[in-house]
Protein backbone atom coordinates (compact mmCIF):
# COMPACT_ATOMS: atom_id res chain seq x y z
CA UNK A 1 0.00 0.00 0.00
CA UNK A 2 2.80 2.40 0.91
CA UNK A 3 4.52 1.67 -2.40
CA UNK A 4 1.31 2.36 -4.29
CA UNK A 5 0.81 5.68 -2.48
CA UNK A 6 4.38 6.67 -3.28
CA UNK A 7 3.83 5.82 -6.95
CA UNK A 8 0.62 7.86 -6.96
CA UNK A 9 2.42 10.83 -5.48
CA UNK A 10 5.31 10.60 -7.94
CA UNK A 11 3.01 10.40 -10.94
CA UNK A 12 0.84 13.30 -9.82
CA UNK A 13 3.89 15.45 -9.12
CA UNK A 14 5.47 14.42 -12.42
CA UNK A 15 2.45 15.40 -14.46
CA UNK A 16 2.02 18.69 -12.61
CA UNK A 17 5.70 19.62 -12.72
CA UNK A 18 6.18 18.25 -16.22
CA UNK A 19 3.64 20.59 -17.78
CA UNK A 20 5.21 23.70 -16.27
CA UNK A 21 8.92 22.94 -16.41
CA UNK A 22 9.58 20.32 -19.08
CA UNK A 23 9.84 22.92 -21.84
CA UNK A 24 12.52 24.97 -20.12
CA UNK A 25 14.35 21.87 -18.87
CA UNK A 26 14.51 20.22 -22.30
CA UNK A 27 15.39 23.42 -24.11
CA UNK A 28 18.11 24.37 -21.63
CA UNK A 29 19.71 20.94 -21.83
CA UNK A 30 19.61 21.00 -25.62
CA UNK A 31 21.34 24.38 -25.74
CA UNK A 32 23.96 23.34 -23.21
CA UNK A 33 25.09 20.11 -24.91
CA UNK A 34 24.13 20.73 -28.56
CA UNK A 35 24.69 24.48 -29.08
CA UNK A 36 25.56 24.13 -32.77
CA UNK A 37 22.75 21.78 -33.74
CA UNK A 38 19.30 23.06 -34.77
CA UNK A 39 16.40 21.44 -32.93
CA UNK A 40 14.51 19.15 -35.37
CA UNK A 41 10.77 19.53 -35.80
CA UNK A 42 10.06 16.14 -34.16
CA UNK A 43 11.47 17.49 -30.88
CA UNK A 44 10.37 21.11 -31.30
CA UNK A 45 6.76 20.04 -31.83
CA UNK A 46 6.74 18.04 -28.59
CA UNK A 47 8.15 20.95 -26.61
CA UNK A 48 5.81 23.41 -28.36
CA UNK A 49 2.83 21.24 -29.35
CA UNK A 50 0.30 22.36 -31.90
CA UNK A 51 -2.79 20.63 -33.21
CA UNK A 52 -1.99 17.00 -33.98
CA UNK A 53 -2.99 15.48 -37.28
CA UNK A 54 -5.28 12.47 -37.41
CA UNK A 55 -3.08 9.37 -37.83
CA UNK A 56 -3.37 7.45 -41.08
CA UNK A 57 -4.26 3.78 -41.26
CA UNK A 58 -1.25 1.52 -40.69
CA UNK A 59 -0.93 0.49 -44.31
CA UNK A 60 -0.86 4.15 -45.38
CA UNK A 61 1.76 5.32 -42.91
CA UNK A 62 4.80 6.62 -44.73
CA UNK A 63 7.15 4.52 -42.60
CA UNK A 64 5.48 1.28 -43.71
CA UNK A 65 5.94 1.92 -47.45
CA UNK A 66 9.20 0.38 -48.73
CA UNK A 67 11.04 0.97 -51.99
CA UNK A 68 14.44 0.22 -53.52
CA UNK A 69 17.30 2.68 -53.05
CA UNK A 70 17.59 3.04 -56.82
CA UNK A 71 14.17 4.74 -56.77
CA UNK A 72 15.72 7.72 -54.97
CA UNK A 73 16.35 9.79 -58.06
CA UNK A 74 15.36 13.40 -58.90
CA UNK A 75 12.16 13.30 -60.91
CA UNK A 76 10.94 10.01 -59.42
CA UNK A 77 7.39 10.06 -58.05
CA UNK A 78 5.81 8.27 -55.09
CA UNK A 79 2.33 8.32 -53.60
CA UNK A 80 2.68 9.10 -49.89
CA UNK A 81 0.86 10.55 -46.92
CA UNK A 82 2.81 12.26 -44.16
CA UNK A 83 1.01 12.19 -40.82
CA UNK A 84 1.90 12.42 -37.17
CA UNK A 85 1.37 9.52 -34.80
CA UNK A 86 1.99 11.37 -31.53
CA UNK A 87 -0.68 11.52 -28.83
CA UNK A 88 0.24 15.00 -27.64
CA UNK A 89 2.45 13.61 -24.86
CA UNK A 90 5.08 15.99 -23.49
CA UNK A 91 8.64 15.46 -22.33
CA UNK A 92 9.16 15.21 -18.59
CA UNK A 93 12.34 16.58 -17.00
CA UNK A 94 14.81 13.73 -16.56
CA UNK A 95 14.85 13.90 -12.77
CA UNK A 96 11.07 13.53 -12.75
CA UNK A 97 10.92 10.78 -15.41
CA UNK A 98 13.66 8.80 -13.66
CA UNK A 99 11.68 8.86 -10.40
CA UNK A 100 8.63 7.18 -11.96
CA UNK A 101 8.53 3.36 -12.23
CA UNK A 102 8.53 2.16 -15.83
CA UNK A 103 7.96 -1.57 -15.65
CA UNK A 104 5.30 -4.20 -16.25
CA UNK A 105 4.88 -5.15 -12.55
CA UNK A 106 3.87 -1.55 -11.79
CA UNK A 107 1.21 -1.31 -14.52
CA UNK A 108 -1.84 -1.63 -12.22
CA UNK A 109 -0.63 1.26 -10.10
CA UNK A 110 0.27 3.35 -13.15
CA UNK A 111 -3.20 2.85 -14.67
CA UNK A 112 -4.87 3.73 -11.37
CA UNK A 113 -2.88 6.90 -10.83
CA UNK A 114 -3.46 8.08 -14.39
CA UNK A 115 -7.17 7.15 -14.23
CA UNK A 116 -6.75 4.91 -17.25
CA UNK A 117 -9.21 2.05 -17.73
CA UNK A 118 -7.07 -1.13 -17.84
CA UNK A 119 -9.30 -2.42 -20.65
CA UNK A 120 -8.94 0.74 -22.76
CA UNK A 121 -6.96 1.18 -25.97
CA UNK A 122 -4.57 3.58 -24.23
CA UNK A 123 -3.86 1.02 -21.51
CA UNK A 124 -3.06 -1.57 -24.18
CA UNK A 125 -0.70 0.87 -25.90
CA UNK A 126 1.08 1.70 -22.63
CA UNK A 127 1.39 -2.00 -21.80
CA UNK A 128 2.84 -2.70 -25.26
CA UNK A 129 5.32 0.17 -24.98
CA UNK A 130 6.68 -1.14 -21.69
CA UNK A 131 6.79 -4.71 -23.05
CA UNK A 132 8.71 -3.53 -26.13
CA UNK A 133 11.18 -1.70 -23.91
CA UNK A 134 11.64 -4.70 -21.60
CA UNK A 135 12.03 -7.25 -24.42
CA UNK A 136 15.42 -8.91 -24.85
CA UNK A 137 17.20 -7.63 -27.99
CA UNK A 138 18.08 -10.17 -30.66
CA UNK A 139 21.69 -11.29 -30.92
CA UNK A 140 23.89 -8.42 -32.04
CA UNK A 141 21.22 -5.80 -31.36
CA UNK A 142 20.74 -3.27 -28.60
CA UNK A 143 18.13 -0.68 -27.79
CA UNK A 144 17.15 1.82 -25.15
CA UNK A 145 13.87 3.47 -24.24
CA UNK A 146 14.37 7.15 -23.50
CA UNK A 147 11.80 8.59 -21.10
CA UNK A 148 13.21 12.12 -21.33
CA UNK A 149 14.94 14.27 -23.93
CA UNK A 150 18.04 14.40 -21.75
CA UNK A 151 18.34 10.60 -21.62
CA UNK A 152 17.82 10.33 -25.39
CA UNK A 153 20.64 12.81 -26.05
CA UNK A 154 22.97 11.08 -23.60
CA UNK A 155 22.25 7.63 -25.06
CA UNK A 156 22.93 8.86 -28.60
CA UNK A 157 26.19 10.53 -27.60
CA UNK A 158 27.35 7.44 -25.73
CA UNK A 159 26.39 5.05 -28.54
CA UNK A 160 28.03 7.12 -31.28
CA UNK A 161 30.98 7.97 -29.03
CA UNK A 162 30.69 11.66 -29.84
CA UNK A 163 29.40 14.77 -28.10
CA UNK A 164 29.11 16.61 -31.43
CA UNK A 165 25.79 15.32 -32.73
CA UNK A 166 23.01 16.46 -35.02
CA UNK A 167 19.41 15.27 -34.74
CA UNK A 168 17.25 15.18 -37.85
CA UNK A 169 13.61 14.46 -38.64
CA UNK A 170 11.16 14.65 -41.52
CA UNK A 171 9.64 18.13 -41.84
CA UNK A 172 6.39 18.92 -43.67
CA UNK A 173 5.50 22.52 -44.54
CA UNK A 174 1.76 21.99 -43.92
CA UNK A 175 0.23 20.78 -40.65
CA UNK A 176 -1.90 18.30 -42.59
CA UNK A 177 -1.67 17.04 -46.14
CA UNK A 178 -3.60 14.40 -48.09
CA UNK A 179 -2.30 11.20 -49.56
CA UNK A 180 -0.92 12.35 -52.87
CA UNK A 181 1.80 12.04 -55.47
CA UNK A 182 5.17 13.53 -54.50
CA UNK A 183 8.05 14.28 -56.85
CA UNK A 184 11.67 14.05 -55.69
CA UNK A 185 13.33 17.39 -56.44
CA UNK A 186 16.64 16.77 -54.67
CA UNK A 187 18.46 14.46 -52.29
CA UNK A 188 21.64 14.17 -50.27
CA UNK A 189 23.22 11.07 -48.75
CA UNK A 190 24.33 11.63 -45.17
CA UNK A 191 28.00 10.87 -44.52
CA UNK A 192 27.71 8.66 -41.46
CA UNK A 193 28.81 5.06 -40.92
CA UNK A 194 26.47 4.62 -37.95
CA UNK A 195 23.28 6.30 -36.81
CA UNK A 196 20.98 6.17 -33.83
CA UNK A 197 17.33 5.94 -34.82
CA UNK A 198 14.64 6.87 -32.28
CA UNK A 199 11.00 5.96 -32.80
CA UNK A 200 8.16 7.53 -30.82
CA UNK A 201 6.07 5.24 -28.62
CA UNK A 202 2.59 5.72 -27.18
CA UNK A 203 2.75 6.55 -23.48
CA UNK A 204 1.44 9.02 -20.90
CA UNK A 205 4.50 11.18 -21.58
CA UNK A 206 7.04 11.26 -24.41
CA UNK A 207 8.96 7.99 -24.78
CA UNK A 208 11.29 7.03 -27.64
CA UNK A 209 12.60 3.57 -28.57
CA UNK A 210 16.20 4.12 -29.74
CA UNK A 211 18.75 1.82 -31.36
CA UNK A 212 21.99 2.08 -33.35
CA UNK A 213 21.94 1.18 -37.03
CA UNK A 214 24.36 1.02 -39.93
CA UNK A 215 21.59 1.88 -42.40
CA UNK A 216 22.24 4.66 -44.90
CA UNK A 217 20.28 7.88 -44.56
CA UNK A 218 19.21 10.44 -47.15
CA UNK A 219 17.62 13.85 -46.88
CA UNK A 220 15.07 14.03 -49.68
CA UNK A 221 13.27 17.13 -50.97
CA UNK A 222 9.72 16.34 -52.12
CA UNK A 223 7.06 18.46 -53.82
CA UNK A 224 3.46 17.33 -53.42
CA UNK A 225 0.81 17.62 -56.12
CA UNK A 226 -0.99 20.23 -53.99
CA UNK A 227 2.19 22.26 -53.49
CA UNK A 228 3.16 20.78 -50.11
CA UNK A 229 6.92 20.80 -49.65
CA UNK A 230 8.56 18.10 -47.56
CA UNK A 231 12.11 17.62 -46.34
CA UNK A 232 12.02 13.89 -45.67
CA UNK A 233 14.45 11.43 -44.14
CA UNK A 234 14.84 8.14 -45.99
CA UNK A 235 16.62 5.22 -44.34
CA UNK A 236 17.97 2.36 -46.46
CA UNK A 237 18.73 -1.10 -45.03
CA UNK A 238 21.11 -3.52 -46.70
CA UNK A 239 20.44 -6.34 -44.26
CA UNK A 240 17.14 -8.01 -43.42
CA UNK A 241 16.51 -5.85 -40.36
CA UNK A 242 13.38 -6.50 -38.26
CA UNK A 243 10.35 -5.28 -40.17
CA UNK A 244 12.21 -5.26 -43.49
CA UNK A 245 12.09 -8.98 -44.35
CA UNK A 246 8.54 -8.73 -45.68
CA UNK A 247 9.50 -5.71 -47.77
CA UNK A 248 12.07 -7.74 -49.72
CA UNK A 249 9.39 -10.27 -50.58
CA UNK A 250 6.92 -7.60 -51.70
CA UNK A 251 9.57 -5.91 -53.83
CA UNK A 252 10.57 -9.23 -55.39
CA UNK A 253 14.25 -9.11 -54.43
CA UNK A 254 16.47 -11.44 -52.43
CA UNK A 255 17.05 -10.26 -48.83
CA UNK A 256 20.34 -8.41 -48.59
CA UNK A 257 20.85 -8.19 -52.36
CA UNK A 258 19.75 -4.55 -52.72
CA UNK A 259 19.17 -1.75 -50.22
CA UNK A 260 15.52 -1.40 -49.21
CA UNK A 261 14.39 2.01 -48.01
CA UNK A 262 11.52 3.78 -46.27
CA UNK A 263 10.82 7.34 -45.20
CA UNK A 264 10.76 8.15 -41.50
CA UNK A 265 7.47 9.48 -40.09
CA UNK A 266 7.54 13.05 -38.80
CA UNK A 267 7.73 11.89 -35.18
CA UNK A 268 10.87 9.76 -35.56
CA UNK A 269 14.49 10.92 -35.37
CA UNK A 270 17.98 9.99 -36.41
CA UNK A 271 21.13 11.11 -34.63
CA UNK A 272 24.50 11.37 -36.34
CA UNK A 273 27.77 13.24 -36.01
CA UNK A 274 27.24 16.92 -36.70
CA UNK A 275 28.40 18.61 -39.90
CA UNK A 276 28.03 22.29 -40.71
CA UNK A 277 25.64 21.48 -43.56
CA UNK A 278 23.34 19.33 -41.36
CA UNK A 279 20.74 22.07 -41.07
CA UNK A 280 17.49 20.27 -41.89
CA UNK A 281 14.74 21.10 -39.38
Automatic annotation (TrEMBL):
Keyword Signal attributed: yes
InterPro entries: BURP, BURP_dom
SMART domains linked to this entry: BURP (SM01045)
Span of domain BURP: 66-274
Presence of keyword Signal: yes
Position of the signal peptide: 1-21
PROSITE patterns: BURP (PS51277)
Key words of the record: Signal
Matching Pfam families: BURP
Origin: domain of life: Eukaryota
PANTHER family per UniProt: BURP DOMAIN PROTEIN USPL1-LIKE, BURP DOMAIN-CONTAINING PROTEIN 7
Name of the protein described by the UniProt record: BURP domain-containing protein
Organism: Rhynchospora pubera
Phylogenetic classification of the source organism: Eukaryota, Viridiplantae, Streptophyta, Embryophyta, Tracheophyta
